[in-house]
Structure to design on (295 residues):
């Protein structure tokens, strides 16, 4: 770049293309605006032009929600095995290892206990970057242990969902997790627990068909994809065109499938306000009988 073209003002800096590191700019998939990545991160990965909510990781949600980013991990060492000796183009165990190296997580959900605006809670946060947030036996076990912890300590439970559904590499084992988690949630509900789901983009398949839609209060991020089967499959099945915005959180709110749409910036305050409103977070009142966790 010719020197005569460079601006000398301290407030204006002209950059050579070679000086721009790869990944510094991100194109918004909704408005097509190109956003500076650091600005996007500071805005909780929300587009500064159209407020589109980019997908974020479980660690991002922890930093967003937990006081000082501090938490206690639940069932942190549980890892997947290959119960079916699944054979495909890529070995299942190799897929697990690759995902672990890529994300730094053991599996597609992180289960933790901590405080949100000074109120104690148990959270299970799914991560779409780990094999599409697919629900295998480890996801089921970790969420089950998180529910047990919420039941034992009489604390509110939040599950943040982001999933493509059941993990096909584990076959029926993955499908069984829907019943396992749902039965744990039923018992937690019988004890008087408060269960809040936060549905993020995307939440589909068996996750939607089970615990994502079982919350006492169901929240969702703006424009999140929420559904069971894909829109194309549904259209082919019923032979009709689908409404505009079908399977998006705004459409589901209008039809009564979810309770409220909450932007990422307001999520922490919304959760703590709900805890306070229902008198949770400082410990629920236990029943006369001692809480017994059934394995």
């Amino acid at each position: 770049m010719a020197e005569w073209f460079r601006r000398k003002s301290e407030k204006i800096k002209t950059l050579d293309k070679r000086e721009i590191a790869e990944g510094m700019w991100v194109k918004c998939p909704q408005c097509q605006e190109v956003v500076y990545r650091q600005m996007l991160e500071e805005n909780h990965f929300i587009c500064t032009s159209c407020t589109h909510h980019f997908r974020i990781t479980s660690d991002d949600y922890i930093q967003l929600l937990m006081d000082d980013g501090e938490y206690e991990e639940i069932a942190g060492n549980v890892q997947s095995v290959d119960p079916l000796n699944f054979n495909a183009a890529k070995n299942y165990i190799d897929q697990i290892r690759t995902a672990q190296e890529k994300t730094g997580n053991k599996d597609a959900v992180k289960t933790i206990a901590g405080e949100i605006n000074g109120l104690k809670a148990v959270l299970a946060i799914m991560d779409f970057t780990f094999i599409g947030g697919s629900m295998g036996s480890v996801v089921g076990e970790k969420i089950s242990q998180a529910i047990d912890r919420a039941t034992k300590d009489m604390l509110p439970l939040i599950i943040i969902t982001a999933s493509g559904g059941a993990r096909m590499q584990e076959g029926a084992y993955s499908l069984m997790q829907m019943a396992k988690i749902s039965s744990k949630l039923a018992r937690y509900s019988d004890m008087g627990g408060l269960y809040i789901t936060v549905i993020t983009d995307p939440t589909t398949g068996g996750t939607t068909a089970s615990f994502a839609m079982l919350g006492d209060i169901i929240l969702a991020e703006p424009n999140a994809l929420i559904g069971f089967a894909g829109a194309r499959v549904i259209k082919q099945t019923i032979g009709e065109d689908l409404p505009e915005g079908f399977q998006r959180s705004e459409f589901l709110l209008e039809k009564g499938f979810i309770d409220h749409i909450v932007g990422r910036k307001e999520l922490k305050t919304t959760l703590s306000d709900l805890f306070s409103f229902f008198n949770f977070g400082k410990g629920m009142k236990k029943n006369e009988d001692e809480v017994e966790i059934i394995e």
